[in-house]
DNA sequence: CAAAAATTATAACAACTGGTCTACATACAT
DNA sequence: ATGTATGTAGACCAGTTGTTATAATTTTTG
């Protein structure tokens, strides 16, 4: 039972990685199959609705992974300024090490599919909201007023996503670093 | 001579729009040809290097258009806080009217091509740098110290790009609005 | 062991991809 | 008028896309 699910998991894991790196349309089912070492028959057995379903489940895996990373990072420090700043700097560090080859987690799928697939768009929306809410909850738990915490959660999420996109394109972690540096001034 | 260049311009204009809306890989040459009303022969006459060259020139047109929009918006008010805030709110307003169908100007191409085409990646980088620099120059011209202005230019650019991406995915201009609201606190 | 269910293996599908090629028309120079 | 770029027009190519259908195989169950 454990090993049997691993075929589906292998497909999702590989698809997750490729969609993130190359985007939705540039990633072919054949490539996913080949790189995951799984047979093509299995793909439509596990994902009868085809590419869209596979992308959806892959995205959910990716989103959960990123969210865990954010939540864990924010827990490391009780003080929100430090916590958020360290989280972003950790992202920058990881980015520098991996050489930006990893792509931008949710954005690549969001941009390509939001206008052509409502289920995928919705999954991206949920993912982004979960990120945003992680920031907001951290701020609330440190005593910030709720409405202000929501505002800041949205703004910080925007900053981080934008900085990630820019760092990826520039091939340089500077945007992430600069955004981290502004966190103290933004939070008072 | 005037009318003849309009064929190339028509192709670029159509391509520019489609790449922005659908992304690089989802936009086929045939679609560009059909929607622009130009024959395929002309495409490879004007763009002998094919899709990559067409995308590059289209991106440059898009980038210039966006930059002009930023520069014009920033000129409307001498005070940088108001200027930037109004610019972002104008973006939000436009976004609400167009119903987010327009896509995200540079990001869609940046994400899809940065890892597979160095010329395109570089064009995206230049585009983003020009946006960033517009903010920085505005801040410098209002008396801000240069290093701080550069830092803030990068951060504001990140915020705006991120908010645009989030607004697009959420189908809601709230992220843009919230980012605009934080500009005063960010600029002290 | 046999029956049933779960999974994998192929082959084929129509539709499309980016790109090439040649034929044709128009304009402009000499 | 004639020759030469410039530009138009579209058929055509090999390769790939996502998807489907069916057959073979393995695994699980009775």
UniProtKB/TrEMBL annotation, chains A, B:
The answer, when asked if Transcription regulation is one of the entry's keywords, is: yes
- Give the Gene Ontology MF terms in alphabetical order: DNA binding
DNA-binding region, residue range(s) = 28-47
Tell me where in this chain the HTH tetR-type domain is found: 5-65
Tree of life domain: Bacteria
Q: Name one Pfam family in it.
A: TetR_N
The record's annotation in PANTHER family points to: HTH-TYPE TRANSCRIPTIONAL REGULATOR LMRA, TRANSCRIPTIONAL REGULATORY PROTEIN
This chain's protein is named TetR family transcriptional regulator
Say which species the protein is native to.
Ureibacillus xyleni
């Amino acid at each position: 039972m454990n090993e049997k699910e691993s075929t589906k998991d292998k497909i999702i894991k590989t698809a997750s990685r490729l969609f993130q790196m190359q985007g939705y349309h540039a990633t072919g089912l054949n490539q996913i199959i080949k790189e995951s070492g799984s047979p093509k028959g299995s793909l439509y057995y596990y994902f009868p609705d085809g590419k869209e379903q596979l992308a959806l489940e892959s995205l959910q895996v990716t989103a959960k992974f990123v969210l865990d990373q954010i939540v864990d990072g924010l827990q490391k420090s009780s003080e929100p300024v430090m916590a958020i700043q360290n989280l972003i700097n950790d992202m920058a560090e990881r980015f520098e090490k991996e050489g930006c080859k990893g792509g931008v987690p949710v954005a690549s799928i969001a941009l390509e599919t939001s206008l052509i697939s409502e289920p995928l768009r919705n999954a991206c929306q949920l993912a982004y909201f979960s990120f945003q809410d992680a920031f907001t909850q951290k701020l609330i738990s440190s005593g910030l007023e709720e409405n202000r915490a929501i505002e800041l959660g949205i703004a910080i999420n925007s900053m981080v996503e934008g900085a990630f996109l820019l760092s990826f394109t520039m091939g340089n972690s500077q945007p992430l670093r600069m955004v981290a540096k502004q966190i103290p001034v933004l939070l008072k």
